[in-house]
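Email to the structure team, subject: Trichome birefringence-like C-terminal domain-containing protein model.

Hi all, the expression group asked for a predicted structure before they design truncation constructs. Nothing fancy, just the tokens so they can compare against earlier work. One-line instruction: predict Trichome birefringence-like C-terminal domain-containing protein, return tokens.
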Amino acid sequence: MKIKNVMKFGNAKNFTMHSIVRWLDSHLPSYPHLKVFFRTIAPRHFFNGDWNTGDTCDNTTPLSGGSEVMQDGSSDPVIKGAVKGTKVKILDITSLRDEGHISRYSSRGTTNVNDCLHWCLPGIPDTWNELLVTQI
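Reply from the structure team: attached below.
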């Protein structure tokens, strides 16, 4: 019985992103008016701990950089490498509106849990959509 090695997370992400972008780029010539964008995510921004250990993520100003739509640039080197030389563009929202979410979210039975995946202030996804529409 042959056992395959489990791929490390970084390698799995790299393989997955390159595979997806390569597939998309190979199909884009069939659809000349179609544009493809990959949206980045906000970077880890916890201070004094982790999301479930009493840390804080109550920033009041945006992080610097990462405020443009770019063809071959991103704060994520895996994504940057995957789109390089393709027609897939990066919608780099990495550092946009880091302060645009509430810093504390708690469910019953939990305290000091930070929810940095859900953007709670009105208008933030709308702004991303406006950036995307200007590129289309």
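Strands lie at 36-39, 69-70, 88-91. Helices lie at 9-27, 77-83, 124-135. Ping us if the truncation boundaries need rechecking.
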